[in-house]
Structure formats: C-alpha cells, structure tokens
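Batch manifest, entry 17 of 40.
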Amino acid sequence: MSFRIGQGYDVHCLAKGETLWLGGILIPHDKGTVAHSDGDVLIHAICDAMLGALKLRDIGTNFPDTSNEFKNIDSKILLKKSYDLVKGKGFEIVNIDATISAQKPKLKSFIPDMEKTMAQVLEIDEEQISVKATTTEKLGFEGREEGISSSAVVLVKKSDSGK
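Output type: structure tokens
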C-alpha cells in the first residue's frame, strides 16, 4: 500500500501546580497535565496516529511510562522518535489533522505556534498540519476542567526515496 491512515487519542488529568504543554508550546494556565512525560496530549495523539498507521503499536508501547528514560521527557522528542520509526518503514507524512478538547484555556491564539513547532520537529511544511480546539460546552471531564484530550488523524505515504 502506498497510503496509510492512522488515528490517535490521548487524555490527561488536569491539576493545579502542573504545567500545560500543547503542541510543544507552554500554555499559561492555572492547571496543567498530570503525566509521566510532559503530558502533551496533542503530540501524544499525533504520535499514536503516526505509529498506528504503520502498525507500530502505540506511544505507551514504544515509550513506556514505566521507564525512567521517559520521565518528564519533552514530548517533542517523542514526536521526533515516532516519526523516525515511520520513516524507518519508508513512509512520510502527507498531512495531520488534530483536535484538542478543553473548556479552558482558550487556545486559538496558540495554534499557529503549535503548528509551526511541530512542523519544525517533523521537518514538514506548516500547511501539512491542522490543529483545532474545541470546548465541550461544559459537558464531561473536559467541560468540568478535570482533564484535557486530543484526537488526531495522520495520512502517510510511501516515500519517494523510501524502501
């Protein structure tokens, strides 16, 4: 197959005193994610989508939260390592479409920096990454500000220079 699609999803609890990283950007907020790594749900969902597209399991299998190697790791490193696995199979990213679900903070103004940061890590054009943010109209754990989630879809294709 020359094209493959992967889907990813991640969720983390929110707590006071923690930092909030999304798309490789530190977001000012009174709460942050509780996680083994930096808890960047957007990057984690994208990693799972990339890995899933090529049956490379998931982020937890490749970078287990039981390993001290990944304790407090910058998720941009996990993004790069995940894409290295994809490229190792001879594939490259066509596009990424992702959504963050959070009642607060409002994320619209941070999205261009998220897209730029992740594009740089992945060495792709910013036009290949679309990030959106939504609230859940105060419904569910996101709406109650207990947690934050993200979903992503990634399309990859066999690289012209690939295997």
